[in-house]
Amino acid sequence: MLSRSVASAVSPVSSSSLLPNSKPIFCLKTLSGYRSSSFCGGSFRKINHKPLRMTSSNMTPRAMATQQLENADQLIDSVETFIFDCDGVIWKGDKLIEGVPETLDMLRAKGKRLVFVTNNSTKSRKQYGKKFETLGLNVNEEEIFASSFAAAAYLQSINFPKDKKVYVIGEEGILKELELAGFQYLGGPDDGKRQIELKPGFLMEHEHDVGAVVVGFDRYFNYYKIQYGTLCIRENPGCLFIATNRDAVTHLTDAQEWAGGGSMVGALVGSTQREPLVVGKPSTFMMDYLADKFGIQKSQICMVGDRLDTDILFGQNGGCKTLLVLSGVTSISMLESPENKIQPDFYTSKISDFLSPKAATV
Question: Which residues are designated catalytic?
Answer without folding.
Answer: 80
